[in-house]
Design a protein that fits this description.
CATH topology of the largest domain: Cathepsin D, subunit A, domain 1
CATH architecture of the largest domain: Beta Barrel
CATH superfamily of the largest domain: Acid Proteases
Oligomer: single chain
Low-confidence stretches: 1-21
Length: 423
């Protein structure tokens, strides 16, 4: 969570029939490290399946990573606390810093802001000399945010029955304290967002602490923090919901003459347990999430990731219900560079986000077919960026928006089973 943002590989067949502790050899350790640093979390999970009885510091770390990415924060905390205890005198300082950072991310997911703040503080005080200036700035930003929230009680959610809502131009009816608003559900937003004028009208508590936020174009925008004591979405009642509060002008898009008022971000969407988006604009929230045997969704920080197949290769993409159109990232371009340059025209894409936009060199691919959740997806046209924007664009193959979702009658996100389903 160093930066707050909004918006293929060979697998090993492992056996571990011996119930005694077995330390991974150097080759496997290197492969685990490669899968982790390249953020190939589905493959990392599969490799670790054979090492469930191992208690070496190496495996403790990666099991903590997998449980974090597949949304099991409590068990991830246990693995990582055991890891940092064992590894505090080991030479791999970078991995130890990551262990603390993922611990902080777990505390943040559980809305335990004080513990997240203390963990970010530990990173800065203990490992400051190992960090470059940009890393220090990122960790200080995260520490500032969590420390400002340290006395805020954890977010809670009570689901009082099944909810059916109709969106208006993609916006959900939401009640914040005693004010009715329309806000867009956005899985690509790490936090819920609101403009200051509406936050004040809704009597939201505003914490006057500056937080740097990266928009989808990779540009920094300053926000404040807001806490809504009560948020109602149909028959779901949430308390102590944290918002990023932007000045109205920072969420105004001049070229489109559009004032964005706010979005409902991932921490609220996840608290619903399960949510179904219908192509007709209907949103369904069941009284209780269904159980699924497939687990084809994971998280990087607070960004949902899904696996897709292209040309027979499995790639990982960000899922962003707040994006109207999908975009492919430089990792995709590099993997298929020769084909793209030979068959498609170069272009310039305006990558918009809260606070502005950037013009990025790109290509426009046509008639692209991929497979997600065993369903074929067709893009008549999709841009492929050749330069990085957000951190996510360094690792994942694209950002998938509503143009993919609306190819089906319904898309369900289930955070209890960590899966997504197209119907």
């Amino acid at each position: 969570m160093k930066r707050i943002a909004f918006v293929t590989l060979a697998l090993f067949t492992l056996s571990c029939s011996d119930s005694k502790k077995t330390t991974p050899d150097a080759h496997l350790t290197a492969e685990l490290r490669n899968l982790y640093t390249s953020k190939q979390y589905f493959d990392l999970r599969d490799v670790l399946e054979g090492w469930d009885r191992d208690s070496s510091s190496t495996v403790l770390f990666y099991r903590g990573v997998v449980d974090n990415k597949f949304h099991r924060p409590e068990s991830s905390v246990r693995y990582l606390q055991a890891y940092v205890s064992q590894a505090e005198n080991e030479a791999d300082v970078d991995l130890l810093i990551d262990g603390y950072e993922i611990l902080a991310d777990n505390f943040l997911k559980m809305h335990r802001y004080k513990e997240a703040s203390e963990t970010f503080g530990t990173i800065l005080s203990t490992f400051g000399s190992h960090l470059d200036p940009e890393q220090v700035a990122d960790f200080e930003n995260s520490f500032t945010m969590c420390d400002a929230l340290r006395d805020v009680p954890p977010q809670t959610a009570v689901i009082q029955g099944e909810t059916k809502l109709q969106t208006t131009d993609g916006y959900l009816p939401v009640r914040i304290n005693d004010r009715d608003l329309l806000l867009g559900p956005d899985t690509g937003a790490n936090f819920s967002v609101i403009i200051r004028s509406l936050a004040e009208k809704a009597d939201m508590r505003i914490i006057d602490v500056s937080v740097d936020v990266l928009n989808v174009a990779g540009m920094k925008v300053v926000a404040r923090l807001g806490v809504a004591s009560r948020v109602e979405i149909g028959k779901v009642v949430l308390h102590n919901v944290v918002f990023l509060v932007f000045d109205d002008k920072d969420l105004y898009i001049p070229g489109a003459d559009l004032q964005i008022k706010g979005v409902i971000g991932f921490p609220v969407i996840e608290a619903l347990g399960e949510i179904t988006f219908g192509r007709n604009g209907e949103v369904l929230i069941p009284a209780e999430p269904r159980k699924h045997s497939i687990h084809n969704m994971c998280l990087d920080g607070l960004t949902p990731l899904i696996a897709g197949i292209f040309r027979g290769n499995r790639h990982t993409f960000c899922l962003d219900s707040g994006a109207g159109t999908s975009t492919l990232y430089p990792s995709f371009f590099k993997a298929y560079e020769e084909e793209i340059e030979a068959n498609y025209s170069a272009s310039i894409e305006k990558v918009r986000g809260f606070g502005g936009y950037r013009e990025i060199p790109a290509y426009r691919m046509e008639n692209v077919r991929m497979t997600f959740s065993e369903k074929e997806i067709f893009f008549k046209e999709i841009p492929v960026l050749t330069e990085y924007t957000l951190d996510n664009s360094h690792y994942f193959y694209g950002n998938l928006g509503r143009d993919m979702i609306h190819q089906f009658e319904r898309m369900t996100l289930n955070f209890a089973s960590m899966c997504f389903v197209f119907e």
